[in-house]
Each structure stands twice: as C-alpha cells, then as structure tokens.
Amino acid sequence: MAKCSNRSLPSKRRIGKLAACRPSGGIVERNVLSSLKTLASSWRELHDRADVLECRTRQIPEENARPLLDVYCMGTMSAAQLAVIGGDNPERIRSEAAFSKLCGACPLPASSGKTNRHRLNRSGNRQGNRALYNVALVRMSHHQPTKDYVVRKTKEGKGKLEIMRCLKRYIAREVYRALIAIRNGEAGREPAVERGARLREVHVSLGKTQQQVGDALGVPSSRVSEIERGVRDLPELERQIIEWMDSILGQSQHSNTFDNV
Known about the structure:
434 Repressor (Amino-terminal Domain), 3 domains, two-stranded antiparallel sheet, 12 helices, about 65% helix, about 0% strand
C-alpha cells in the first residue's frame, strides 16, 4: 500500500500506480486499496475526457481569437474566458484601463498616512480575474523576466498580493491589445504546427538533434519536440530556439527563414 500511494511520485505516476495495483492484504488494507484503485481509474478516465474537450475547445480561439493564444502562458480555457468577456462587452472596453476594471484587475488606493499603496479589486468579472490570475501564476513559475520582477518587488517591500495585482494589471494590458487585434481582424501568428514544422526543417538542415537543441538551451528535448509537433505553444522557448539557430547560421541571408515564425 505504501508503494501505491507514495507521495513523492508525480501525480500522474501515482494515479497510474494506484489504477494498476492489485488489492491484497487484510480486509482493511484490501478495501482501502480497492477504493483508491476505483478512484484512480475514474480520475484517469475523466482526465482523458477533459483533454479531448480542451482540444476541441482550443479550435474555437485558434480560428477566431488567435492573438489571445499568443499571449505568453495563456491557456486554452483562460483565452476562451477572456474572449467571451471581450465579446460580451465590446462597448465597455474603450481602453486598457476599462478592460482592467471590467476584469477587476485595476488598482484601488489603500494608502494610510505616509504609506502609499494599492490593493486588489474585489469587483469586476471574477471569471476574467481568475483567468488573469492563472496566467500570472504560471509566469511566476516559468517566465524568467516575471521571476526577476517578483524578486525585485519583494526586495522593495511589496507583499505577494501586491505583486500579483501588478502582474494581473500588466497581463490585462497584453490581453486588451490582443482583443484589439482580434477586433481589427489581425490573424496573429501562424498555427503552431506550421511554425514547428519550419523549426524542424531548419534544425535538421543544421545537422542538430532535438537533444542538442535542448542541451544548448537547458531544457528537456521533449519540450523541443512538443514545439516542433505543434502540441504545445511556448512562445518564449520558441523565440530562444530561433535565436540559437540564427546564431549558428551566422549569415544574414539565412535569417529570413524565421521571418514568419
């Protein structure tokens, strides 16, 4: 039982072990393992269904709101939610400040005496606010410029909630620009599959493997593979791959290879 529920394992591996385990032992241990096995099997089935639904949902913003998906760390559901907010309230979004207020991401004065500070806004569309929060949370973990920003603001004495407020306001600005691009009929970047195929052609022509590309950038080769297959949209890593390949090419005439990436 201890091996099946080892908390040190990643969630998916732990679920897999529980779903594959064979209940044995005394009546208590056997019943507990049987219950965990049933729950794990249900979780895997629902997770697979959720993945299918997310792929289907992604086709809608891919076709109608591509600039939103180009926002760094923007997931399918967050993009869909923000697209709905922008579509439902076009007359209210006259500026990025209006959109920020609509999503409850605008700063509210909370100064006292000699202290000059702002606090989170608890009003506005909470689903939109949650979408901005999710993007900010992922950036704090995986986006180096955001990590540096958090460190800098922490040294200045700002708390986590204040830093999160600033990040959501900044992301709201990016989302507003994406909504304007959608409204103006701009298509955004090419589909991830086409950009990935172009990257694959270039690294093959250079005689480099995915493992070599990953080692050069300090990332797993699986990330490079996901980008080239169009499975995941990782704009920041994609940009780093392009710059690395450009540096290897070292000739200006080859830089046109990436004009449309």
